[in-house]
Design goal:
This protein has 257 residues and is α+β, with helices and mostly antiparallel strands. It folds into 2 domains: 45 residues, no CATH class; 154 residues, endopeptidase domain like (from Nostoc punctiforme) (endopeptidase fold (from Nostoc punctiforme), Alpha-Beta Complex), CATH 3.90.1720.10. The protein has 7 helices and 8 strands; from the N terminus they run H-H-H-H-H-H-E-E-H-E-E-E-E-E-E. The strands form 2 sheets. A 6-stranded antiparallel β-sheet has the order 3-8-4-5-6-7, covered by helices on one side. A two-stranded parallel sheet has the order 1-2. The longest helix has 18 residues.
Length: 257
Amino acid sequence: MTLNVIPLSSRSIAVALGVVALIGASTVGNPAQASNSGSGGAESVLVARGSAVSSLPHVRAKKKAKPLKGFRNIRGCPRVAPKGTMRDGSEVIGVRKMCVRAARDARTPVAARAIVYAFNHLGGKYSQSARTHVGWFDCTVLIDKAYLTAGVQSFFTLFPYTGNYADKSLWKGTLKEAKGHHAGDIRIMWAKKTTLAKSMGNKGHGEMFLTDGYVIQSGGGGTSKVNVSRGDNWGWHERFFRYSGPNVHQPRPAPVL
């Protein structure tokens, strides 16, 4: 018998090897499919192309979004802020980026959730008389509602105002005075001609620290609504406070505020 050798070009050999490799990839680790590889060759190649593509080195899976560092259950930073609520250059950083930065810098998950709450209420209306109503705040009520939603019942036995921070007998054990400050910490300020205990109405002010030298507050001048501004103490007296309770990882159900 005489054998006729048909010369093959390098291109033909490469194509043949490619088909064999695809068929082999589809049958690795699948005995059932390997036993049927002799029939339905075209189908085998299609299956191979679909099943082997994810393992090819030049195909990269999309990276999952990273959760907030340390607090995986923190979600909800807004992407858009109401007009006029990001002030003093904070609009250049952007509302979402600033919210995420502050939540990451917070010392506890509770403080991080309080920050997210405050950011989601940017533009909330300011009123000292209507501050108990839905959608209305004054400076201390914004802080109290933010921490209430984050899992704290309240910092005080009485309704919050800046003077409460002067009387430790009114504290509920989840508040302590701080020397420095991190995101989520509280700054209480009062006018020079008064005391912290008597700093009612416009004689006192409360705000929550963020990062990059900014605070989030209700009021503070301009159009008095919840806003992000530079942390200027106006030359007033000031003291810093911090949530000191347990690191509650799941917020308790809270009423609509």
